[in-house]
Every structure is written in structure tokens, then in C-alpha cells.
Design brief:
Blueprint (H helix, E strand, L loop, with lengths): L1 E9 L4 H17 L3 E6 L8 E8 L2 H8 L6 H13 L2 E9 L14
Antiparallel strand pairs: 1-3, 1-4, 2-3
Length: 110
């Protein structure tokens, strides 16, 4: 599994547009073989940082998903929200592999 972590610098005045943008991408990732773990938005104070995390079974699966960018009408429509609102000032992607907690060991029965 590979997880993409996207760090956004957003326009705080356009947070509603960013939320619309995020909802569309969550749907698209899930529809095209990934698992979206959500967007993480500023909660208090003045902040222009937001994050998104989503996973694909492999880098090859992610690359297949990426072939739709700029061509698939649903992908183009999602990007149009970002482009027309200016809600995203810049972003950076990092690929990571998750290390998840192991399930607890069964306790011996007395």
C-alpha cells in the first residue's frame, strides 16, 4: 500500500470552495480504486494549511488513477472548483507507506 499525503496552502477566505473541492476528490479517489482518509482543515486560529491523505494498493494503481487527470470529465470538473475559486495557492505531494498499529495479542485464558 502507498499513501499520498498532500499538504496544501489554501486561501482561508475560500474554505467553502476548498471543502467542495475536497468532497469531489474524496469521491473520485474512492470510485477509482483508492481509499480516501479525509481532508484535515484548519480548526482554530488563522491558518492556511490543510492536508489530505489517501491510499492505493500500489504505486502502479495510483499511476493508473493519475492517467485520468486532465482527460476524465469528472476529474476536470473537480479541478475547475480549485482553479475558478483560487482556494488552493499551492500544494506538495509526498508518498509514504503506512505503519499501522498491530492488533493486540490475545491474552491467555486462566
Amino acid at each position: 500500500m502507498i499513501t499520498c499525503v498532500v499538504e496544501y496552502v489554501i486561501d482561508p477566505a475560500e474554505i467553502e470552495a476548498f471543502e467542495r473541492f475536497g468532497r469531489r476528490w474524496m469521491e473520485l479517489v474512492d470510485r477509482h480504486g483508492g481509499t480516501h482518509h479525509g481532508y484535515f482543515l484548519p480548526a482554530e486560529g488563522a491558518s492556511d494549511k490543510a492536508f489530505a491523505l489517501f491510499s492505493f494498493p500500489s504505486l502502479a494503481a495510483y499511476e493508473e488513477y493519475r492517467t485520468r487527470f486532465g482527460r476524465d470529465p469528472d476529474f476536470v470538473a473537480a479541478d475547475r472548483i480549485r482553479d475558478e475559486s483560487g482556494c488552493v495557492l499551492r500544494y506538495e505531494r509526498t508518498f509514504m507507506r503506512p505503519m499501522l498499529p498491530e492488533p493486540p495479542s490475545p491474552q491467555p485464558q486462566p
